[in-house]
Design a protein that fits this description.
The complex is a heterodimer of chains A (177) and B (756).
Chain A (H helix, E strand, L loop, with lengths): L2 H15 L4 E9 L2 E6 L3 E8 L11 E7 L2 E7 H4 L22 E8 L2 E7 L1 E9 L3 E2 L7 H6 E7 L2 E6 L1 H4 L1 H6 L3
Parallel strand pairs in A: 2-11, 5-7
Antiparallel strand pairs in A: 1-2, 1-8, 3-6, 4-5, 6-7, 9-10, 10-11
Chain B lengths: L2 H26 L4 H21 L2 H18 L7 H24 L4 H18 L2 H5 L14 H4 L52 H25 L3 H24 L1 E3 L1 H4 L2 H12 L3 E6 L4 E3 H22 L3 H6 L6 E10 L2 E8 L6 H10 L5 H6 L2 H6 L21 H11 L3 E7 L3 E9 L4 E9 L2 E6 L3 E7 L1 H7 E4 L2 E6 L2 E7 H5 L1 H9 L13 E8 L2 E7 L1 E9 L5 H4 L4 E6 L5 E5 L1 H7 L7 H11 L8 E7 L2 E6 L3 E8 L3 E4 L2 E6 L2 E6 L4 H5 L6 E9 L2 E7 L1 E7 L1 E4 L6 E8 L2 E5 L22
Parallel strand pairs in B: 2-4, 9-18, 13-15, 20-30, 24-26
Antiparallel strand pairs in B: 1-3, 4-5, 5-7, 6-7, 8-9, 8-16, 10-14, 11-12, 12-13, 14-15, 17-18, 19-20, 19-27, 21-25, 22-23, 23-24, 25-26, 28-29, 29-30
The chains are: A alpha+beta (177), B alpha+beta (756).
């Protein structure tokens, strides 16, 4: 056998040897894209909440929500990705999208603490197989390459994986883009 | 880790802490049999438990200590400095191993075994007093000791020693007499006996959760109060709920309170070790140890206090010879004092050392580029002292490993301010320095006023709020004055700088407002506005908001660091209405808007100075003194002070003011002082001016305005008339500062001249 096909077959053997792991992801939608967050990081899903705007906050901050006795900082996935606001009528100087409309919020826990992720809508919990996981394409750059942890190929399309650690507002604040 | 081991760790740590206090007490009272028995018992107990749990290292070390302590207890040996030091080293060693157990669940054998052997040998040696007196080369696991001769002038090191090895310190003339004699005030002389039965050890996590729950209860109570305010059926119940909640809240907060002795108790040891290292004789006096403070606040001040103590010993208290030469007691005194004052707890660290050299401070600050020479020249003594709090400041000649790395005082201030406290410093050259930490008592619930701006609610802590002013839309144009882009409001004769909250929070709005600033009136919104007069550490200003709501007692919820770093918010809260509100930080807002310390006119003057003076000629501060108008060249004005008339003193006929450590002659040709003299509570306004090398004051009735003066010419000539200018179309006399007579140097009075 040529070395290349030898390598290929040993790779195939290796792949087959590690049985595909099934993982549960919570799907959320922002714009046209379906994103997934491992449910192990999700504390709760809070629906239909209007976050409180924080003037002068960094662009990615979605506002504040009251959650179980604490005031959580939320990250707006839409703003993080630089997508236009859902609600085009924003006050000048008010950079928090969440101020006017109600949103679904994922309460996530990372090593830095709890925070909220502001999304357009929360979908179902999907069970995916690690075998369907593809790493980030090399064309992905900047913030997206840090935030996305690859994607899963699903019958209905791609489920882009998000890394909760990277979504933590403290992390985002430190590595200000 | 199993329960038994965890219990063992907690109890042993407590035991070791207690023993450390006992040992420092023992040094003072080497023959106190009760102390000796107590210490022996503690070590004995630890030895027993460690054997049972299988901690061999601990057992061996404890055994060696027990042997030595046995001799002491039986009177066969007398506790001297070397023995105490050796035993303290034993405590440290045991503590280190306990920590390792906590982290690794085992004693961490291999690496440190040889150090154990050295320590055990040392303890054995101490059992024979003759051997102990022999100077040995540095040993012991903590001493990164340097040769004795260098200790007198500590050179910079990269790592701080934990404890100096006593043998390498220049041995005191009398080996038995300890160099440091820490002393505790009578009430807390003896360390507490074993915990009495009426107390309970509670997990801090549980207490924090209780605090959170109480906070939630307070918020719910607020909401219920609001919702039921109008319904008579509920008023009675609401009131009871209110009372019960308030009581519960107080009880939980009390549960978290601990006496400051928990923190102070570390200091006898620290002072002892440091004074040996630095070759100072220091007596430690501690007062008010029973004063209580919330546990988390206590944690937070531990480091700042330690740093302050180190500073005092390193830079404050002089060497015994220096003190003796200055006629002072060669033994310096370091006093730690805690007491409650209103809603704050004050903790003072004071020494009777050399004080802080204000000139050195000024020079160092200029040298480090922290301040310009011109600005430095303007600062009075009190302000100069504040320079030590700037980051990057340190006057230590050689940066010692003890203090003076240049990171010290600003970290102290930051840590204290983080918990809502303040740091004050007071120093007298040759007499000593006092550092005062002012810490708020209640942690998380504060009274606040709710204000509205940009359609949102914000909370303003009542503590900083001085008064509220309403401005009707039709008044706005006249009552708010604009001076080169800075809005001002005249509050009872004083100019108050204004900050528009909506402009601060929305830079776009602010720039639109400023861009088309002439005439200013067009940009004040046609609606009611309110000015909240705030005082943040002596910086007074008015915050303009769109609306006011009822004051509320709010629970302060912490913000994430991302939002905290914006700077103007100190937290967030949930209002009675259920909405979230950000809590504004008056001090940071002032800083952000560039409001300086001291009265507004300094800032106005600065704004003026930045401007080209070209077309309009020089600028003056227009004042009214008695019936006349006068003008003072604005460049010469340093500050405008409103002072109590009682502060005016007299040398002969001359009125003077003790201002920032200087005696200021007051020029009062208008008789302002005379009209105020009938009323002891009267306040007068003094314009403090620079004149050549000195400062003088002018007593005025009112400060009217700042304006540009056109020169007046003497009738019939082209010469500018001296001493007169045209201001706002009024002929106005310019005050001739140079004509103000200097104060007599001698103490006896000279008939004063009142200059014109």
């Amino acid at each position: 056998m040529s070395t290349r096909s030898a390598a290929k077959s040993s790779l195939a053997l290796r792949k087959a040897a590690s049985a595909p792991v099934m993982l549960e992801m919570c799907s959320v939608r922002v714009g046209a894209t379906l994103f997934g967050v491992p449910i192990t990081h999700i504390l709760e899903i809070v629906g239909n909440t209007r976050p409180q705007a924080v003037p002068l906050a960094p662009e990615f901050v979605g506002g504040l929500v009251h959650y179980r006795g604490d005031v959580l900082t939320t990250v707006s996935l839409r703003q993080l990705l630089g997508l236009p606001a859902k609600n085009p009528d924003r006050e000048p100087g008010n950079n928090t999208q969440g101020a006017d409309t109600r949103h679904d919020i994922l309460v996530l826990e990372s090593s830095g603490g709890c925070f909220g992720l502001l999304v357009d809508s929360v979908g179902e919990v999907l069970t995916v197989s690690s075998a369907d996981h593809e790493p980030n394409p090399s064309t992905l750059e900047g913030r997206r390459s840090a935030l996305f942890a690859g994607a899963y190929k699903l019958p209905q399309g791609l489920l882009v994986m998000l890394d909760p650690e990277q979504l933590d507002p403290m992390r985002l604040g430190a590595t200000a883009a | 880790m199993d329960e038994l081991t965890r219990e063992f760790l907690i109890e042993s740590q407590e035991g070791l802490d207690r023993m450390e206090r006992c040992l420092t007490d023992l040094e003072e009272r080497p023959h106190d049999t009760e102390l000796l028995a107590d210490i022996f018992r503690s070590v004995h107990t630890i030895k027993g438990t460690t054997g049972f749990l299988g901690f061999r290292r601990l057992e061996k070390l404890a055994h060696a200590g027990e042997n030595l302590l046995g001799l002491l207890r039986d009177g066969k040996l007398s506790a001297n400095q070397s023995i105490i030091t050796g035993l303290l080293q034993l405590m440290d060693s045991l503590r280190g191993i306990l920590r390792t157990i906590e982290l690794q669940n085992n004693e961490g054998e291999a690496e440190d075994a040889h150090l154990d052997a050295a320590l055990i040998a040392r303890l054995r040696e101490l059992q024979h007093p003759e051997a102990a007196a022999i100077t040995l080369s540095g040993r012991g696991q903590f001493a990164e000791a340097e040769p004795p001769v260098q200790l007198a002038h500590p050179a910079s090191r990269t790592s701080p020693p934990a404890i100096p090895d006593p043998e390498t310190a220049p041995s005191p003339a009398v080996p038995e007499a300890p160099a440091a004699t820490p002393e505790q005030s009578p009430e807390t002389g003896k360390p507490k006996a074993a915990a009495s039965d009426s107390t309970l050890r509670v997990d801090v996590v549980l207490l924090n959760r209780m605090m959170n729950l109480v906070g939630e209860l307070v918020l719910t109570r607020n909401q219920i109060l609001q919702a039921t305010a109008l319904d008579p059926n509920f008023t009675m119940l609401s009131r009871r709920l209110d009372m019960v909640t308030a009581d519960l809240r107080e009880s939980v907060m009390k549960a978290r309170m601990q006496p400051v002795s928990n923190v102070f108790s570390k200091f006898p040891r620290i002072v002892r070790d440091l004074s040996q290292l630095l070759n100072r004789k220091v007596r430690l006096v501690m007062e008010g140890q029973e004063t209580e403070l919330d546990k988390s606040l206590l944690e937070a001040i531990k480091d700042p206090l330690t740093h302050a103590v180190r500073n005092s010993l390193d830079h404050g208290i002089e060497m015994p010879e220096v003190r003796a030469a200055a006629g002072k007691d060669p033994e310096g005194t370091l006093k730690l004092r805690a007491y409650q004052e209103g809603s704050h707890v004050l903790i003072e660290v004071s020494d009777d050392g050399a004080g802080i050299g204000v000139e050195r401070v000024r020079n160092k600050a200029i040298e480090r580029g922290l301040i310009t020479p011109q600005r430095a020249a303007q600062l009075g003594e009190r302000d100069l002292l504040q320079l030590i709090f700037l980051p990057g400041f340190s006057t230590a000649e050689a940066i010692t490993n003890v203090s003076g790395r240049g990171v010290g005082m600003d970290v102290v201030r930051t840590n204290v301010e983080k918990i809502g406290g303040k740091v004050e410093i007071d120093s007298r050259p040759g007499q000593g320095t006092t550092l005062r930490l002012r810490i708020p008592l209640t942690l998380a619930i504060i009274p606040a006023l709710i204000v509205r701006s940009l359609g949102q609610s914000f909370a303003l802590p009542q503590g900083a709020l001085s008064e509220l002013v309403h401005i009707a839309p039709e008044q706005a144009a006249t009552v708010i004055e604009w001076l080169e882009g800075t809005p001002l409001y005249r509050l009872r004769g004083q100019l108050l700088p204004l900050i528009f909250l909506d402009g601060l929070l929305s830079p776009g709005l602010q720039s639109t407002r400023l861009a088309a600033l002439s005439p200013a009136e067009e940009f004040l919104p046609q609606r009611d506005q309110f000015i909240a007069v705030l005082d943040a550490d002596g910086r007074r200003y008015g915050l303009v908001v769109d609306g006011l709501a009822d004051p509320e007692e709010i629970v302060v919820k912490p913000l994430s660091t991302v939002l905290k770093s914006i700077g103007i918010y100190s937290g967030a809260t949930v209002l009675g209405s259920g909405d979230l509100a950000l809590i504004l930080d008056p001090g940071s807002i002032a800083t952000r808007a560039g409001i300086a310390m001291g009265k507004v006119d300094v800032q106005v003057g600065a704004a003026m100075e930045d401007e080209e003076e070209a077309a309009t000629g020089s600028r003056y501060l227009l004042v009214e003194a008695g019936q006349r108008r006068a003008a003072v060249p604005l460049d010469d004005v340093i500050r405008i002070e409103r002072i109590a008339f009682s502060r005016v003193e007299y040398i002969g006929h001359r009125p003077v003011l003790n201002f920032q450590g200087q005696l200021l002659p007051i020029e009062d040709s208008a008789g302002v002082l005379a009209s105020a003299s009938g009323d002891p509570a009267a306040e007068i306004i003094v314009v403090v001016c620079r004149e050549g090398n000195r400062q003088v004051g002018i007593a005025v009735s009112h400060v009217l305005d700042v304006g540009a003066g056109g020169e007046l010419f003497e009738a019939g000539s082209q010469q500018p008339a001296s001493g007169v200018t045209l201001l706002n179309d009024h002929v106005t006399g310019i005050v001739d500062l140079g004509a103000i007579q200097p104060l007599p140097i001698a103490a006896h009075a000279e008939p004063g001249h009142h200059s014109e």
